Amino acid sequence: MINTTASLLSRGTSPQVALTDYMSGSMDVLYYGSLSIGTPAQSLTVDFDTGSADLWLPVNCGSCNTQQFDASKSSTYRTNGDSFSVEYGSGSVSGILAQESVQVANTAVVGQYFGAVNSESDDFASNPNSGVIGMGFSSISSSGKPTYFENLIANKAVSNSYFGFHLARRQAQGSAVCIGCYDSSKFTSSISWLPVVSQSYWCVSMTGFSANGNQRNALNSSLVGAIDTGTTLIYVPTAVADSFYSQIPGAGRADSIGAGFYQFPCKASYSASLSFAGKAFSLATADFNLGKTSSQSSMCVGGVLAMGDGFPDNLAIVGDEFLKSWYSIYDYSGNSRVGLASSINNSK
Questions:
Q1: Catalytic one among 21, 28, 47, 49?
Q2: Where are the domains of the chain?
Q3: Side-chain half-sphere of 92: how many Cα atoms within 13 Å?
Q4: Class for domain 187-347, per CATH?
Q5: Where is the Peptidase A1 domain (predicted)?
Q6: Quick check: is 228 catalytic?
Q7: Which CATH architecture best describes the domain 5-179?
Q8: Is 5-179's fold the same as 187-347's?
Q9: pLDDT tens across 164-223, in order?
């Protein structure tokens, strides 16, 4: 039995976790915040990721560059030696499956399963955060164990079965995730609720995709749109990307930039939007335009990328590029749903 006294005493009073926007140049790469783990509690940072469902942190990891969890200093650390590994779209980690007392904001779970990672691929080498907390559905977890938030619901440790994200644009501070709540001061419209079509990722029906003010639809049929706070940009099947960029005069592939990238004339006129369950949501120019292909170029790089071979042809991954314009709420109640409301970023 794990002693809960120390972890409960160290919990905070606010349901909000402040997130730091990690930027590379003008690009918002990822958003990360703090959690506490162990007894006595140690504070580490994680990427709050709706596109995965495992919690992991480095423990005795020789290849890891960030702060690690020192399991030897915790009286509540447990492991039976089961192996653990996660393969992401880019990057992988491995180690052993462990249990520990974990606290996020004013919530806590005793005996939370997590990956004690002792090996990371180079993809994580430049990231400032120590690990990842997956906030998708446990049906996609590599460990096969309930997620942290699912445990909160099961333990009746949150008043509401949802959490909400505000992602700021190009500023290190100001972003947050609300655990068991949403922050109505961060959006200016009513909430549009979208039914989840698959309890794996937070998947909704993507019914439209346009660069031309919804006058043309780049989709021949609906896609499964995974709303993913852990992904920087927007990824769609190659045929969809080709159709989308064909709506912007002068746009085309930009293989010299990298696989899946496209370019378009910086002065081009366009009005990009995504539609979910038949409702259109705009995509801000400030987030779609990733900047010039080179300092003297008249061409700019687009933030919609082709996923290429090996990805499902009916899937879109909708990342932070979209979510900076839309406060997002992830609700487990009923058959689950995603809420979108116009972010205060849009009024700045």
A1: 49
A2: 5-179, 187-347
A3: 7
A4: mainly beta
A5: 31-341
A6: yes
A7: Beta Barrel (2.40)
A8: yes
A9: 999 999 999 999 999 999 999 999 999 999 999 999 999 999 999 999 988 899 999 999
